[in-house]
Amino acid sequence: MSSRLLSAKVHRTAASAIRWATRPGGSWFSSTNPSTLLVKRGRAFHLSDKPVKSDSELYNEAKRSVRSKQKGVFFGTSAATYLSRSSSRSLSTTAAAVASSSSLLQSSSSSGKKSLRLASGERCAPHERLLVLGSGVAGCAAALTAARHGVPVTVLHAGSVKEDCNSYWAQGGVIYRNYRLKEKDGSEKLVDTPLSLVNDIRIASGYRGALQRNTPLEECHYDASLLLNDPTSSKMGQICSTAGVNWNEDAAWKLALEGPTRVRQLLLGPQDDGAGHTSTGCVVPFDRTTLPTAGPDDDNDGMGKESPEDNTVLSLCLEASHAAPRIIHHADCTGRAITESITRAAAAHPLIEFRGDSIATDLISDEHSDGMVIGAKVLDKNTNKIEAAYAVHGVVLASGGLGGIYEHSTNPGGFNALGSSVALALRLEERLNSSLPGESGITSDLEYVQFHPTSLCLPNEARFLLTEALRGEGAILRDASGRAFASDYHPSAELAPRDIVARAVFTESQKAAADGSDGHNAFLDMTHRDASWLRDRFPTIHSHLSSRDSPMDFTKEKIPVIPAAHYTCGGVTSDLSGRVHGSGGQVHRNLYVAGEAARTGLHGGNRLASTSLLEGLVFGSSVGELVAGVVSDDDAMEKREELIQTMEGARYAIERRLAVEEQSYTSDGDARPVDEKVGDEASALLARLKSVMWDGVGVVRTPSGLADASSELTAMKDEAEFIWDRAGGDWRAAAVRDAARSGLAVAEAASANDVSGGAHYVLHEEVRSEPVSDAALVGAAGGGFGSEDDEEEEALVAAVVL
After folding, report:
1. Catalytic residue among 478, 498, 732, 741, which?
2. Of 89, 191, 264, 379, which shows the fewest CB atoms inside 10 Å?
3. Is 213 a catalytic residue?
4. pLDDT tens readout for residues 476-517
């Protein structure tokens, strides 16, 4: 940046600070003298080992720091934002000095919302923040990490309570690491290594090629020097020549190497070497167990370390397709335990604000630049008002996946899992590039929608998830006659990858019951396990079944199951830092994505069990660090320089918009009259859409079925936009608008890929006219019989069983 341009920006932003200071009702300084405040800020951030400067010099230095890249002040945000910083790698190297000289206070505005204020009275500008869309694990991880490094955050969630998110409903657990299980050759080598986890992810993904890296790595930050693939590519990864699956091994290594640290940092307490008891995280009450013996050899770096209080360690369980028991859990409601803890920790942080009943309807971009994102239009469900929420630090898409657009889904109702992040991204790119639907590069791999193999199948009842952990604990899949059928489809039987088990259950459920009963032919059987143990291990499932009008007891009877849409393996295209990539690999500045909403290439064509919560922690934290300018290597330093310019541009664009809005006295915040009839139309359209998705873009797909579905969904997308224009701010119209856009994108992605792989299975009509064996139907897409991974998978399963 030239000195002349920098000088101009300093002058411009200093003037804007004064405008904000004197603006009626919008002051973010309670001080009437901004010059005095800047001098105080300069002294607070002045390093004690440097010569003392005059007030005039400090004032000029502070102005430059406020709007440029000088260390000490983070890009012009209020000094309040630095008081919680603790990392020596962040942009502010003098947080301790500030913390010792000032204190952060919370105050309430007239609306009762939390605001940020220093003891000196300084208040942060509303738009000097990061805007996170979604309150699940990924969104909270991004918020907590960014706030820990001094960035104010506003988290928007569509439900009335912040726990209303997909993460809440995860049953199984979260991947950690088994530091106890050693090789049987008497060595100290661990069975559960990062390489082992990466290989498990590869096998589950449907990628049949060999690993690019076979040398072991130990836990560390996965920086640019370790990358195997081109980070500038719009879709990092390698494409499998047989299955067509694009899997990013780099994403798997990042998860395996950084995952345990993120779990300790955000979820575990001191008894497990965690930092969750600090203000940056939380302590989740994971299940614990007592080791049979304890001695000098049981020092296992935290995981095997016994708690001095109760002589216990974290309990580790096995789930399908894992080579070792490495899953930590809280009974069968791990998602609820984590969500309640992490949202409570985030809400307690002074730099994080939650806003409920808030739906982002469109992203706001700067029309005077390359489309840099500067905020979002937000619908308030209570008032039906749509207002602009600006954010200098950018917007994070973290609202989950799109499994809820299917008729049979394990996702909760309401606004959850309707593909809002995908829809927001697609509408942004279409608006910027005027591209036709289906041609946008801002989303990838949307055809890979994972169907969970076992959801409760009862007439006229919503599908209820029966966790993967049941099969990990020995549940058997049987047909109506009692025959165990899973081994007919894969040598790993019930522990095969999810896509294979799902198609096996789907295939069996289509057959007439052998005993001539009600026709259902797929059941989950746990009756061979101890009844008391089952009820204690799976209390949520037991409670759900026993509380029905016609109670069921899974300790005594087989449970009818059917696959249901569960997880989106693709999503909004991003790199490993969470930056969103669009057509041609272009980076959408100031726009980030994390969690199920993102496509990093981690899952390829199919997700490994219990990776979702860890994915949210790892990649959400990476987004938070990127936004905060945390530096770990040269690549991060380059990104920080880009970030500086992006935030400067965003600030200028936002303040220009605010000035125009103030002068024209216009506002997007006027209430829109709601037409209940139109809202009912939206609900009816959503029901029809879900049926089309299940029938045409479901577990098993055909080219003609996909073509028909795409045609219907195109019409539904247009109808949904028409309803939205007439609905007057009804949230149901916003829901079907997002669902229709994301549903069409899934159908088009599936139509464009005629190679079966992972969760995407296409049965071509010319093949259907000839008999097809069940094993061929199921195994063709997921590494079943005939796959080069067969011997490897059998060996893994044998090792686990032993």
Report:
1. 498
2. 89
3. no
4. 999 999 999 999 999 999 988 888 899 999 989 888 544 455
